[in-house]
Amino acid sequence: MPQEIKTINLSLPFRSGSVNCYLLEADSGYVLIDTGYSNKRTSLVGELKNAGCNPSNLKLIVLTHGDFDHVGNAAYLRQEFDTKIAMNYDDSGMVEHGDMFWNRRVNRFIRLAGKVLSLLPPFRLSKSNRFTPDLFITDGFSLLDYGVDAKVLNIPGHSKGSLGILTAKGDLFCGDLFVNDEKPALNSIIDNLEAANLSIEKLKGMRISTVYPGHGKPFPLSSLIIKKR
User: Fold this and answer.
1) Which of 30, 33, 103, 179 would staple 53 via disulfide (CB 3.0–4.6 Å)?
2) pLDDT at 226 over 80
3) Is residue 228 part of a domain?
4) Per the domain annotation, does 125 fall within a domain?
5) What is the arrangement of strands in the sheet containing 219-220, beginning at the earlier edge strand?
6) Which of 25-29, 55-59, 60-64 is least confident?
7) Strand pairing of 210-213 and 185-186?
8) Cα dist. 103→82, 92, 111 in Å?
9) What pLDDT does 225 receive?
10) Where in the sequence is the domain holding 34, given as residue range(s)?
11) What is the CATH number of the domain that holds 22?
């Protein structure tokens, strides 16, 4: 069966853009990649139900990384849809403590700025939205048991625990390693540039047709021009 992909685009606070969640049709159910930020929870749940995704058939939530705009509805969906949450262990502290700088190699000024932002409700993962993942997944993990012919890739750079999901037909869900706001590019927010460059080289050796970023529209991998920093 062809893998059906539904893009759910949710706006972020203060007109700061939007974030994508991706609903994959699985065998007799669905797998959701990322959950958006909690300010658009009603919109997300409505989109899921309109697509036929209900508490009885959401088989798994896969989180590409631990940033608040990707994980904000995960705990809620786990409870209301009776499902499980999977992510890389290296970003788990971000969702357990509500601190998106938990594992990032940032200087003192950036960390202080992050702490200030985290005091503002739109930029923090509230206690009720924090959670411990059910599954820790890493490079090579297969989603076949959840009805999707895809595997997990470790693609650190944006964060230490960033993951990609690559389907058998060549669709790559890249989280925030790449963006496509104006044109396809490496994300300007990179925690570890050396790791990001290694992730790029890794992806170059794979059969990838379309890239689905966390921010912006899908694009063919061939249109991505990466200039190493």
Assistant:
1) 30
2) no
3) no
4) yes
5) 150-154, 163-167, 171-175, 210-213, 219-220
6) 25-29
7) unpaired
8) 29, 9, 11
9) 65
10) 5-223
11) 3.60.15.10
Q: Is residue 145 part of a domain?
A: yes
The model's pLDDT over 110-147, given as tens digits with 9 standing for 90+, comes to: 556 556 555 555 567 889 999 999 999 999 999 999 99
Paired tokens of 25? 């049709």
State the pLDDT confidence band at 34, using cuts at 50, 70 and 90: very high
* Count of the separate structural domains present in the chain: 1
Q: What percent of the chain has pLDDT over 90?
A: 75
Amino acid 102 reads: W
> What is the C-alpha to C-alpha distance for residues 178 and 192, in angstroms, rounded to an integer?
14
Q: Name the token pair of 7.
A: 């893009």
SS (H, E, C) the chain: CCCCEEEEEEECHHHCCEEEEEEEEECCEEEEECCCCHHHHHHHHHHHHHCCCCCCCEEEEECCCCCHHHHCCHHHHHHHHCCCEEECHHHHHHHHHCCCCCCCCCCHHHHHHHHHHCCCHHHCCCHHHCCCCCEECCCCCECHHHCCCEEEEECCCCCCCCEEEEECCCEEEEECCEEECCCCEECCCCCCHHHHHHHHHHHHCCCCCEEEECCECCEEHHHCCCCCC
Residue 137 has, within 13 A of its CA and on its CB side, a CA count of 27
CA 212 from centre of chain: 10
Task: State pLDDT tens for residues 157-189.
Answer: 999 999 999 999 999 999 999 999 889 999 988
Question: Which amino acid is present at 15?
Answer: R
For residue 229, is it within any domain? no
